[in-house]
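note to self: dont lose this again. the chain is below, predicted strucutre after it. 489 aa total, dont forget to put it in the shared folder this time
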Amino acid sequence: MNEQAEEHNMSDVFSDPRRQHVLSIVRFFIKNGWTFLRSFWPAFAGLAFNENIRLYSGAAIVLIVALLSVAAIIEHWKYTFHIENAALVIHRGLIEREKLVIPIERIQAVHTEQSWWQRIFGLNGLRVDTAGSSGAEVEISALRTELADQLRHILSKESPKTMREKESTPLVHLDWRMLLKIGLTQNHLRNAAISFGAVLAFMEPFEDVISAMTDAVSPVWKVLIRALWVLFIPLSILLFGMIGVLVSLLGAVIKYHQLQVVIEESALEITGGFFRKFSYRIPLPKIQLFELRSSVLQRLAGFESVRIHQARSQAAAGNAGVNLTIPGLNPTQVLQLEQAIFEAVSPEVLSTLRPHDLYWIKRWILRLSLAIPLFLIGGIWGALLALGWGIWSTWAVWESRNRFKVCLSTSECTVWWGWLHRKKKLGVFYKMQRVSIRTNLFLKRKRLSNVILHTAAGPLFIPCIPDEAAMRLRDWTLKNVEISSKRWM
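---
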């Protein structure tokens, strides 16, 4: 009785419509400002070259800030939420009003996030994910921490007893050593390029000053500077490479600081973050796909990154979904996580499928066709580049062919692909939504088909396998769906 009364009291707190904390105005202002800037930045860039308009830029900025501030205040006032008839009810909208009703039973996961400014004022942000959206359906950006915790537990369907008596198993805790490994295996070239672009943008306003300084230099020094310019190029490349590595390290530490993964009886909880602290709690039945990714550097360092896919609407390849990434797991932790998410995955492989060689011949021809313009119009250097591209393409396709395989067991389907960047995607049969078998005139002559196993989080694609194998895979999948009594979502 006490537990029921406590549950009832928690629900009563949100029975009447209520607003967020007044500081949600800051969040609305930043969001609307970013949307405005992203929508009109080409116009701003073009107007910046007009000297007459630049004279009034101060007044324009003041006017824009004032309008965004008024809009943020009104949006805060118009945004209300409450719980009614086992559903979260949201009223929102500035010009066009919207009423959003989300049944609690249909909520995929509820996450909390806390940036540095929210931490100062004792606030939390709340994100609600559902299967009917490609991202966060609802974002409540400013609630008192105790209210955010209560609302999260209600929407997550956790009883007060469950809140007090959680049985959890720590799986991952990223220490400084692992954070450094993760940072050192990031894409340093991208970070170096971004740093180089930032330096160029910073130096552009001082272009006239630099030109005046170089004009004032004596002819002897100009000759010396030109001679040393050859040495400056490799030194600058080294410098920006070091900056790229440093940015990668700082990014990993800030994003994944004190990241911890805990497996509870029926949920997976991920917490961490430095400036922006986050807490993601996902019920295990809501997880649809399990994906492993590893680069050459990550494999040398002995870990892989894991991406967990939840259900989303229109689950097709390329659609952005609700995905969570765990950046560093060793093989033992990966196996433990697989077992926890999908209960009892079968390690025994009953059958292995590989695409027909025609699939790889088509990919090889498509890659080689990219070198045709170089060969035709590039002269001797173009011919050499085309030859190098052809050798590289042949090697890459051959290695990809050797790595691609589909392993089938009694309970799951696992697809392995990739060469330098390897990937593994695992899905269990009883969670499949449908099976598609596709073919065309060319494949039909060879009695080949493409099979797509659709889940609520995206597809598993198996290309160019014999028709007989495609039919057996379809029948086996549908049989598992029909006989399984487990929760698929």
